Amino acid sequence: MTSILPREEKISPVQMWLLFVLSDGPDYGYNLIQRLDRMFAGYWKPKAGTIYPALDKLASEGLVSRSHEHREEGLDRRNYTITPQGEEALRKGMGRWSQVMEHVELYGERHRALRRMKKEMPRGELADALIRFGELLKGPSFNVSNVLPALESMEVEVPENVVFKFLYAPEGDGMEIEIELEWPNSKKLT
Questions:
Q1: Can you tell me the distance from the alpha carbon of 132 to that of 126, in angstroms, rounded to the nearest whole number?
Q2: Integer distance in angstroms from the first to the last C-alpha of the chain?
Q3: Which residue, among 114, 183, 190, 111, has the nearest Cα to 153 in the 3D structure?
Q4: How far apart are CA 82 and CA 88, in angstroms?
Q5: 64: exposed, middle or buried (C-beta count within 10 Å: 0-12, 13-18, 19+)?
Q6: What are the structural domains of the chain?
Q7: pLDDT means per 10 residues in the chain (190 residues)?
Q8: Are strands 163-171 and 174-182 parallel, antiparallel or unpaired?
Q9: Are the C-beta atoms of residues 84 and 23 closer than 8 Å to each other?
């Protein structure tokens, strides 16, 4: 996997996002954290333990400059400003990021094209569907609507060897489990 920036730049994605925010103008650390938090809208929660070391690294590389602001009321602040070298690194990084996003968009288009079903169902009904699915997998082919009648009818051929993935993770206050099966060169029969 290639990095977002060329290797010689040695800039992490967090550092790139900091440069991006600083390209709008100088700011101090706590406010940078707040701005990133708003920008990512809950998808990523920037923490001081991540942001301040990233800012220190950017400063040591000459990509941002720091200045100390003494304040009569409240705590002193350390302000950060993007340098011309930082602007150049950001330009390169955003070019690379655009390429990455093109790949993500292509994947997203492919993913959205998948047929899928999501519905809440009683545990017993789900267990019965999984048992039915297991039995159907023993044959050379099956129709997905025989697993769950609500699915669009599609006959698929199943090879002898199938890759099985069982993914699970806490999701909010609950749990999410995904079961994936994949095999090469499967073909739609009808």
A1: 10
A2: 37
A3: 190
A4: 10
A5: buried
A6: 7-112 (1.10.10.10), 123-182 (no CATH)
A7: 49 90 94 93 90 95 93 88 95 81 72 68 92 92 86 87 85 81 59
A8: antiparallel
A9: no
